[in-house]
Amino acid sequence: MDLRSWTFRVSTRAQSFRTRRRAFLPALIALSLAAAAGTIESSSSLGAQRSKSPGLAAFSSKLRAQARLCSRTPSKRRYVSTRGSDSNSGRLRHPWKTLSRAFDAAVAGEAVYLRSGTYPGWAIEGRSGTADAPISLRAFPRERPVITGRLKVGGDYFCVSGLRFRGRTPANKSSVLIYVSGAHHVEILNNAIQDSFLSGIYVGDEGDLSSDVSIIGNYIRGNGTHDRFDHGVYFGHVNRGLIANNLVVRNLAVGLKIAPEANDVIVTQNTIVANGLAGVIVGGELSWSSNRDLVVNNVVADNAGWGIRSYWEQTVGSGNLALRNLVFANKTGAFWFPRGGMLQRRSILADPRFVSAADYRLRHSSPGINRAILAYSMPFDFDGRVRSSRGRPDLGAFER
Predict the structure, then answer these.
(1) Measured in Å, how far apart are the chain's first and last C-alpha atoms?
(2) Which domains are delineated in the chain?
(3) pTM summary value
């Protein structure tokens, strides 16, 4: 299947994903917790390095937190349409016209549904929901809204789901597409994020860290115009995060940059292919460093630099671990940790055997089949399919 066609299926996939996840999430979390007892990876087998990295309890907590955000049933629904008016009530038959109007009115527990059309405005979501009543921005079921402006998230307990973001347009010629600034408990789920002038998603500001940010199940492709600085996802200044089930393809610089001040981040079951520099980088800058980050269960292939690497300018981070990743044909090499601060263990260095050059699902003969560490596996894959509960799930974003 041509990857471009997937961007047109995002909102339907998100709706299906939420329905199935509600049914299976508790059981699969329990299965992951059972794996922690030692049936999958014992703490002794990973040594002291694992004890310094994000633990299973933290990972399971992130899954539970996610269930409280995009999976929450909204208390009220509001609507935005290109045919609406900001003087309307925001109800289904009388929608607003702009996201800014909707965000000005949003309160905890409400969902804003975006109808089909193109939205060029620059919107700032500054209001906060709660753990039990998040605010959310969603695609209207089975419709394909496109945001060509920029979305800035400054409010806490916020979900954005099922949308298409497209950059390098007259509405957004020179910025990122999604910008999370100083917010906590934010979930970015099942969106297509393409062709940004800068990085596709940027999280965290110097001196104003974001925290508990989840980026899950997104198609992140072709972002960036500066070959050293523009990445698919840029986790800049953030404490605690989850980057999982994403397809990260052909971004100009790094696929996933976890730097310069990103702590306790779990990067799991992503497929990271053909980016212009490294697939994944964990690093620091000046006196900042990134610590206790875990890169696990990913497929990292055909990137123009290193597969997974670190970078330390002055202060070297600690407790960072690359564990059980399938790494292949990265031009410079598989791993590079020149000053320490990060280790790699139990890697698989082999051809992932993708279905085709345009379809990054794994063939049944792939060395990534049934090789993921269950304790750090997601309940569902990129397509919303339930991951295997027998043995180990697959590496990367797709379950066979």
Answers:
(1) 15
(2) 3-71+115-376 (2.160.20)
(3) 0.89
